[in-house]
Amino acid sequence: VDPEVQSGTYIPLQASAALLWGTHEGSTFELKYALDGRFYSDSQFSNANVMEHEFSIGGEMSRPTKRGNVYWRSHFLVTKSDEQAYDRDDGQAELIDDVNVSDRYSSTRFGPDAYYHRDVGRFGYGFRFNAYIDRYQETVEFLDLTHEQYLGGAHLSFRPLRNTLVRLSGDYYQRSYSDRVASDAGGVRFSDNDELEYTYKNLGLSLRQKVFGSFMVGLDYRYTLRDDTFEGYDDYQRHTGRGYLRFRNGRFSARAAYTYRTYNFPNALNFDDTPADSWPLQSTYGEFAADYKIGRRYAVRAEAILNLVDSTDPRGDYDRNQLSLSLIWRP
Predict the structure, then answer these.
(1) What is d(CA 282, CA 142) in angstroms, rounded to the nearest whole number?
(2) Phi-psi category of 307—alpha, beta or left, where left has phi over 0 and alpha has psi -120 to 50?
(3) Which residues have C-beta within 8 Å of that of residue 81, sequence separation ≥ 6?
């Protein structure tokens, strides 16, 4: 594998519109549409274009009480995503046995999403839940990514000082595929293997500190354990650390974040090696964005993103850098 570095220019497009009604005691009923897309200016990279449409309907409430605030939101979402699969070696449409499978990443997702949080003095607690069905475009049966996913989680928070927040969270997540079989212990997907199913257990710890005015810093740590329920080939352990800051002063605002992840696959094999005891993977993600308001409705945004992935599998070893300049309009 000898990857060639590619560079291109794309136009990000984001837009949303919402209809709100029924406001009562801090609660709102909402019907919303959101668009998120990325379009490359060079036709050579047009198969890397991405488009997502999301419709949601539901309610939201934020209300103070004698002992603290209460917040909840609950929506039903429908998302349509258009993304093409392409051959990583030459950038052309992906073919399997002469069948064009470039639409296999396009999907429709639907399901409920809910979140609840309540403050009681310096303490707080809450939970979240979602359940989605993801229907992917049919191409070749063994490549079908259609699946169901469920997530349930809870959190506890504490404010030791007025401007300091500590939060502990945990959740359980399951993803089950209906037409995709799992790999056996040797990494082979035989047709009589069990259907693919992953379970995830997550634990997180967060610290958020308001330094002064509108300047805030935060630190997050998250531990994730993934279990491949068949023979464990795709098991992994992941450690994620993140630091971020946000600042606002008059017309100017800025944010920056740095995320570092390490993965360990105890049962996976290297791509072109003999079986290994582990398949290590590290990723670094940094972003910086600055906004400047030029009127009541307009702002200019400059953004830089750095994404570095270091892997023993050369297919997943890459660097990606992005610079962008945007005009934002808010009605």
Answers:
(1) 29
(2) beta
(3) 50, 51, 52, 105, 106, 107, 108, 109
- The length of the chain is 331
Cα gap 327→329, rounded to integer Å: 7
What's the confidence (pLDDT) of residue 285?
96
Helix, strand, coil in percent for the chain, rounding step 5: 5, 65, 30
Count CA within 13 A, CB hemisphere, residue 14.
6
Rounded to the nearest angstrom, the gap between the alpha carbon of residue 291 and the centroid of all alpha carbons in its chain is 23
pTM: 0.85
- Beta strand 281-293 with 298-311: parallel, antiparallel or unpaired? antiparallel
Instruction: Tell me which amino acid residue 120 is.
Output: V
Decide the pairing of beta strands 318-329 and 50-64. Answer: unpaired
In this structure, are residues 328 and 300 in contact, taking their beta carbons and an 8 Å threshold?
yes
φ, ψ (nearest 5 deg) of residue 232: 80, 15
Q: How far apart are CA 285 and CA 288, in angstroms?
A: 11
Helices and strands (H, E) in the chain, number of each type: 0, 17
Q: Does pLDDT of 173 surpass 50? A: yes
317's tokens: 């070893």
Grouping H, G, I as helix, E, B as strand and the rest as coil, residue 29 is strand
Q: Among candidates 103, 104, 155, which has minimal Cα distance to 129?
A: 155
124 sits in which H/E element: strand 123-136
Residues 331 and 298: their CA atoms lie apart, in Å, by 9
Comparing CA positions, the residue from 174, 183, 181, 194 lying closest to residue 133 is 174
**Residue 53 confidence (pLDDT) above 90:** yes
